[in-house]
Amino acid sequence: MLSEKTLFLFTLLLLLLYLPFRINAQLNDTGKIYYISIGDSFAEGLKITGPSPGNCTFPAYSYADTLHYLLSKKYKNLELLKYGRGGHTSDDLINKQLNKTIDFMKSNSGLTKFITITIGTNDVSKCNSTNNTCYYNKLDSLKYNLNNIIIPKLKEAGGEGVKYAASTYFWYPSLEDTLVDIYNKNEFKVADLRSIISFSNSTICNYTYWCEYHDVHPNTDGVNTIGGLFYKILGESFLV
């Protein structure tokens, strides 16, 4: 027979072992969890209603909103934080978005579940060619920023419980290949937009403002299609 003292200690031990699991269950059932989107105008969203300049609205519904809608079918308490800003380069992301993202993740430890990034085209867009010193210097700077600052800091703050994904674009082949290489090596899921949008077929008109206003930003159908691609590559679509 167990003594009263032994029985009490045994019961207390079971309670202490059970309590963390109960707390985690309550957090998963009732607490908020987060999806953070960072990057440029693709992440922020841009709606075009007429010829440039001046006929555009931002922030607007972006692929992040579509992805959030799809994810929220499973993750009922998922909240979207959109930190992306139009025109931002990787330097801007570091100076104006990264600390905000990291501070949020640290102050809400374990509650960030998804992070997506679209960045890079504004780093190289002011170069006159994709085959000159300006372009390759900017590309090298982008590589450094992603490999040595942005991705390591995000992973350090987010820990093991975050799913990371990033997109390419579809008009600078060397930029797209560079981004795919960087993200693959850093174990990000990659939404390669070249798989759904191309200047060589009707998708450029169906999914962007190119044929209407000579602008490569995704239209409503494009935003929804890109969000769906992110959803697929994150491996969530079969879980709903």
UniProtKB/TrEMBL annotation:
Keyword set includes Nucleus: no
Entry superkingdom: Eukaryota
GO molecular function: hydrolase activity
Annotated ranges, domain SGNH hydrolase-type esterase: 38-222
Signal peptide feature range: 1-25
Any one Pfam family match given in the protein's UniProt record, by short name: Lipase_GDSL_2
Alphabetized UniProt keyword annotations: Hydrolase, Signal
The UniProt record lists the keyword Thylakoid: no
SUPFAM superfamilies in alphabetical order: SGNH hydrolase
Protein name: SGNH/GDSL hydrolase family protein
Organism: Gigaspora margarita
